[in-house]
Each structure stands twice: as structure tokens, then as C-alpha cells.
Amino acid sequence: MSVFEAWYMDEESGEDQRLPHRLSPNQPVSVQQLEHIGVFHWKLNADIYEDDPELQKIREEKGYSFTDIITIHPDKLPDYQNKLKMFYEEHLHLDDEIRYILEGSSYFDVRDEGDRWIRIAVSKGDLITLPAGIYHRFTVDESNFTKAMRLFVGEPVWKAYNRPADDFDVRKEYVNSLRSS
Ligand code: KMT
Ligand code: NI
């Protein structure tokens, strides 16, 4: 089982978004740093996701009433290349982004409070939440495969607003929450 790991990205290190893009030497980012910018994480047993009391508890506590499953793979996701490109555009949402990795692995990139890219490696069993208003993006890694559960409070809204999206209240509130913590 690979561990949940995050690092500051080398933003100069070439084209292929699916590569790790670590700095050298590696500059790790701690769980505490991630929590500070509102990114939270649970490790669950994805083998039992269909009937997992731990997942059920989180869903009840957080009100994650909606779930569906998305498979990101060239043969499984219609319009794969375009979708991948869209996911990798820096964007925000008006609601939290909650993803539970059931199979495979991938990267979520999030901006820290100083606007630097942090790359978060997620794999089977990682449930990650990104707060409403955080600038982020997503990519598969070199495995080109992730199966993920998408969770949502109520009726899902997948709409993404590409940067710049600084005028949204949700963005202002997010930026303020960083200042006051
Ligand atoms: C998003 O909004 O960034 C996504 O939905 C990413 C793909 S879901 C694993
Ligand atoms: Ni997103």
C-alpha cells in the first residue's frame, strides 16, 4: 500500500503532467500544512467500499448524501484527452471536492497560501477533500488509471471555474479563512 504523500512541485521540469515533478532535493509537505490550507484526508479500506461502516460514518457526519463512480482511463472515459486537459486547468468550485480513490493512483495539485503548487499523490484507499474556493487541478500519473468515488452534499454541481475566479464569494471566504488561521 503506497502512502499518502505531498511535495512542492518543480514547476519548471518539463511538459508531461503525469510525471511526479519533484524538486531536487525533494521538498515534502506535511499533513499539518495540508490541513492548514483546508485539505483533509482519510485512509480507508477500498476493498470494502460498498459496505464499509467507516465510510458510512464519514458520509453521515459530513452529509455526503450523493456518490457516483468515475473511471479515468483512455478506454473507459469518453473524450478522455479533453477531459484530462480540463481537469488539469487550474480551477475552483463553489463546493468542496471530495474524492475517494478505489483503484489506481493520480495527483491532485493544490495552491498553498503563498500560491505555490503542492502535488498530492493519492492511491487506493485515500479519501481526500479540497475546500470550496481553493485553486487546484487533477491529473492521472503514469499509470493512466484511476477509479474514484465522487461524493457530494446534496445534488452534485461539477461546474469548474478556471482561474482567475477571484470575485466569487467562496474564493474570498476561502482566502479570509487562511488569513485568520
Ligand atoms: C476536478 O474537479 O478536479 C475533478 O473532478 C477531477 C477528477 S475526479 C478524480
Ligand atoms: Ni476540481
Question: Mind sketching the topology for me?
Answer:
Elements: E1 5-8, E2 28-29, H1 31-36, E3 40-43, H2 53-62, E4 66-72, H3 80-87, E5 91-92, E6 97-111, E7 117-123, E8 126-130, E9 136-140, E10 146-152, E11 161-162, H4 169-179
Antiparallel strand pairs: 1-2, 1-7, 3-8, 4-10, 5-11, 6-7, 6-8, 6-9, 6-10
Bound molecules: 4-(methylsulfanyl)-2-oxobutanoic acid and nickel (II) ion.
Summarize the structure.
This protein is an alpha+beta fold and 181 residues long. Helix content is 19%, strand content 33%. It starts with a strand and ends with a helix.
The quaternary organization reads as single chain
Tell me the number of helical segments per DSSP (H or I, 4 or more residues long): 4
Strand content: 25-35%
- CATH architecture classification name: Sandwich
CATH superfamily: Jelly Rolls
Task: Briefly note the structural class of the backbone.
Answer: alpha+beta
- Proportion of residues in helical segments: 10-25%
Number of domains: 1
> Order of SSEs, N→C?
EEHEHEHEEEEEEEH
Strand tally, please?
A: 11
Q: Mind describing the biggest β-sheet?
A: 9 strands, antiparallel
Explain this structure.
- By secondary structure, this protein is an alpha+beta fold.
- It has one domain (5-9, 16-180): Jelly Rolls (Sandwich), CATH 2.60.120.10.
- 19% of the residues lie in helices and 33% in strands.
- The chain has 4 helices and 11 strands; from the N terminus they run ββαβαβαβββββββα.
- Strands 1, 2, 3, 4, 6, 7, 8, 9 and 10 form a 9-stranded antiparallel sheet that branches. It has a two-stranded antiparallel ribbon with strand order 5-11.
- It is globular and about 40 Å long.
- The mean pLDDT is 96.
- The chain binds 4-(methylsulfanyl)-2-oxobutanoic acid and nickel (II) ion (NI).
- Nickel (II) ion binds next to loops.
